[in-house]
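Fold this sequence, please.
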Amino acid sequence: MDEDKIKCPCIKFCNIPYTEVDTVKHHLYKFGFVKEYWCWDKHGKTSIDDDNTFLWVDDSDTNFSECACSYKKMVIDAMAPNLNNSDPEEDPNALDKKFFDMLDAADKELWPGCKKVTQLSVVARLLKIKLEYRIPEQSYDAICQLINDVLPEENNMIGTNGHLARCSRISFKKMHYFPLTPRLKRLYASQAITTSMRWYSENHGHDAGVMCHPSDSEAWKHFDKSHPSFAAEVRNVRLGLNTDGFAPHGAFRKQYSSWPIIITPYNLPTSICLKEPYMCLTALVLGPSNPKHKIDVFLQPVVAELEQLWEEGVVAYDISLKQNFHLIAALMWTISDFPAYAMLFGWSTIGKLACPYCGKHTQAFRLKMVNHPYRKDKNKFKKNREVIEGPPPSKNGEQTLREIEQLGLVKVIELNVDDVNKRCGDHGWKKKSIFGDLPYWKANLIRHNFDVMHIVKNVFEHFLYTVMDVKGKTKDNVAARRDLKLYYRKRKGFEDNERAYYTLDKNQKKVICQ
């Protein structure tokens, strides 16, 4: 080994070439370790401490399912062996100790002398079979009891699943909630990732004024200035909430809506910040219809946990520093497309007041009457007129909350919410957002973000289809040209079937495609 490069122990390179450390990490994630490389003799180690051998089980004779193997890899990652063999300066707290004790199940024999499977692998495989084949809980309990009866008396087989709550009714709309706190604590229990949770506070080496990470943004810096005690502990976690809906059975023409709510920790480096392993699925709202503005009903446990993480925090164990510390987390902003923005923020994004910044100052108008004289007026519209007025001043969180309270709007979880909010009139607001329950929310510089993918994708597609003159997808169609004739002065030489001057010809299209 040299200072910058080590031998790559992945399956593809088998400890032969010297490679940069970051590239080695990428290869290990992609290809995995070379088989039977238990003693790191190619990396300066002569033996492995006996205390750590429980993680390196030779499973060449095992027949674990993919679920069991994946779970075992998670356990190994969470408790990567400490090859320095240094005693911890401090023991984990009681709650975290339960998690570390649970990892012992990765090497716990199902019965004395059993070398083929472990307690953890059996549990993982049984749960996978239960979910894959939709086995009812009573049948699952019976199978577990039968296996328990067949095994020797001194076994570590799990019991029945009777402690799980049962419900005989079919819910119209349901929600699955996955607590966030244990996963945030687990980020600091992993030897492989805990140092990356402090990455944002270090010198990244890029030029000042260049935003390479959310920590370089003005919103991040504003939050640090507003909450200096929170910023003083670099291990405190900053979060972002993402949500979007989709129809999982749309291909089968079945009406069903699925709304995942994902929370992402932004402490991590840019290269892994938005990777799948570090995106925490916190809630999943399922039902035959879109929850729309009543999504706040399902956000209640999420907001309640975020509020608890801010006001009370939680004791976590940092395995890299061998310390217990008080972990606090804060939600920096949400990320969504425009329709989901209306659901989270409470502002109606359809109709005349669709723009949340212009609001009542908007210059948009709608022709409601079929025979309105303006429909055929070609001179009274704003063609060739310049708008020199600037945009209206933006409102901060306190001003927005004050406006909502003055209108008398309430949250959707309140009684008679529909009647109360309707009486408030049409001001663009439809509800009081549940995110206002977070003590720091109104002080955030940026509270909601639009998904760049949706905006860029939609604008680019419309532009490309129009200049490429794609049939059925271009915005320069016959209907659009007839509208121009109806509402504006007719442009000379701009007939229905005439090619527009900005569209590309056949040779130009070939150049673009190449």
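Residues 295-311 form the longest helix (17 residues). Residues 174-344 form one domain.
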